Amino acid sequence: MQRVAALFLPSWPIDRLRRAERRAGPPEPVAPTLTPAPRNGGWRPGARWAREDAPRLMILPGTGRGTAPEGRGGGGAAANGSLAAPPLHHAAHGPPPRAGEDLIIPLITAIREGSRIEIAAACPHALALGLRPGMAVTQARAQVRGLDIRPADPEGDRAELRRLALALARRWTPTVAIEGEDTLFLDLTGVAHLHGGEARMAARLVRLLTRLGFAARIAIADTPGAAWGLAHHYRHPGESRDPESKAVSFATLGPGFRRDDGILCKPCMQAEAMASLPVDALRIEGKAIELLHRLGVTRVEQLAAMPRGPLAKRFGKALVRNLERALGRLPEPLDPVIPREAIVASQRFAEPIATPEAIAHWLGQIVTRLAAALEAEGLGATRIELIADRIDGVPQRIRMGLARPSRDAAHILRLLTRRIEEVEPGYGIDAMALHVRRADRQGPQPVVERLDEEAAPDLAILIDTLATRIGMAAMWRSTPVESDVPERSVAPMGVLDSPGRSGQSLKAGDIRQLDRNPALHPWHPEWPKPARLLRRPERIDHVMAELPDHAPRRFTWRGTSHRVVRADGPERVHGEWWKRAGERDSVRDYFRVEDDMGCRYWLFRKGDGERPATGDLSWYLHGVFG
After folding, report:
1. What pLDDT does 540 receive?
2. From CA 534, how far away is CA 356, in angstroms rounded?
3. CA 489 – CA 284 distance, rounded (Å)
4. Beta bridge partners of 563
5. Buried-most residue among 88, 202, 233, 277 (CB within 10 A)?
6. List of residues 6+ apart from 533 with CB closer than 8 A
7. Phi and psi, residue 231, nearest 5°
8. Are 368 and 456 in contact (CB under 8 A)?
């Protein structure tokens, strides 16, 4: 008997956004400013509280209470300072607070449909306030103040849902299918006992997804249609007026979960389980649902009692087909996702080998087969691991990374041959295998024949050769960053990444698009920077310098005294006050100095030498020239 689980992720886009923000780290705290509501409850165009750019008073869902702001219009205890406004809570970070503790900012995602911008997804707090997917964003803003609106990413949501389906297919059941934008079908036939039974498997799945930050509900039935309807629309009798069905039981999920987050339909009782569900549980179109409601048909049991011929003639074959599939009278095949199999090229030997020549010979055979397998899949390897199995059971491993996806057999063999001495054959090697640990898509490569010497050389081969000796982590490139502070004006980047600066993305109506002048480089050639910039400026001692704007004549760095014979400066750098409030008055004066030994350094002094608020006049060494 077939058993199918429907895994419903009710707020998948919002949960995915929350998870990404948690990985990126918490946002910088911002002190909220609450604008008072109107005195008489009316609306006046142009009023200060009604402006779109002003934060507004938030109301907790379900409580009907908000915070009394200070100032005019607050009145009561708030005006006297006896009632303090609780801090704002962002709906995209962590679990929601209890009612009466923190204010909650509803979070929604928006997408453009033609000339209309509508809600794509909403967090539970926004749903509690009456916001629904498909509603116009302008209507949502008028209905709920202070909305946090983020751009929707449907492609990213579908790709992440597919990754989740592939992970479940590798770990839980081999047959996992994607249904819509927020549901997965899992075929549990013959695999539920491996996880302790259906109830325990359902509980483990829901708890796992909850730990990962995704709200989930699961329902298990004989048919995919019944499982989908139960997962989306069944509610525990304690939360509705419906009598408890004898065809449904519930998995024990533990504290913090609702009882109907794990629904188990007893075998061959899907008709009884779905009898009380609304007709929306049959995955039919909205127009058909509206027409059924107008005719007074609101539940599945009413629809199931009708003859199929008139139903198909009035509502189409899709409604009858979905009904029969949900009741188990018609089969519903699943379209599973298929995990990509690992690419491996291996060779076993009749007699053990132990000489470098034999290892190199068979490596050439294995690499050729690996390159052919990569070409058949349209991939290029970026991480390869060689595993040589010895007779005594101790494997020898060589891990190799490539700077660019490649399936060039000669290049891969050349890199592996240089590391053959790392293999200790012992009493002999009876098997070797090449595993592709990571690969990227690689299409056909064009052959370019040029005679000019000005063509840019391909550095990938050189980088791979160096990486086999010193490691990929020891190589990087520097890229300029738009910043006035020197230690923030440079960042590491990949060796093969383009050094060109990516242009700033501007909105469609931004006036800066009319500027045709080339962008200024953040590293100005008239103000050269040292070749070696220290990660953190190091303080220097025993500095002799005239104030306010003269270079030092003598200083001590790392215990060595230096006498300055030449100097240039100062180059004044102000703090980025628009990013960090502590740098509002910060000033640095940089000098390029050369000592009597010909060494050149980059020094700076904190403060302008006149105002104490700009710095304490301490000296630091920030870089070395040459």
Report:
1. 95
2. 45
3. 56
4. 554
5. 202
6. 486, 487, 490, 602, 622, 623
7. -65, -35
8. no
Backbone φ and ψ for 406, nearest 5 degrees, come out as -150, 145
Whether 416 and 386 have beta carbons less than 8 Å apart is answered as yes
Q: How confident is the model at residue 37 (pLDDT cuts 50, 70, 90)?
A: very low
* pLDDT score, position 451: 52
The rounded distance, in Å, linking the Cα atoms of 229 and 8 is 10
Q: How far is CA 507 from the centre of its chain?
A: 23
Residue listed under structure tokens 């704002």: 88
Instruction: Give the pTM.
Output: 0.62
Q: Tell me what pLDDT residue 441 has.
A: 87
pLDDT for 522-540, tens place per residue? Answer: 666 677 788 888 888 999 9
At 125, give phi and psi (nearest 5°): -70, -40
Q: How far apart are CA 183 and CA 161, in angstroms?
A: 9
Cα–Cα distance, 351 to 358 (Å, whole number): 11
8 A C-beta contact, residue 263 and residue 230: yes
The three-state secondary structure class of 186 is: strand
User: What whole-number distance in Å separates Cα of residue 323 and Cα of residue 132?
Assistant: 27
Using alpha carbons, select from 26, 11, 9, 19 the residue that is nearest to residue 211.
19
What SS3 string covers 216-233?
CEEEEECCHHHHHHHHHH
Convert the pLDDT of each residue in 297-348 to its tens digit: 999 999 999 988 888 888 889 999 999 999 999 999 999 998 888 899 999 9
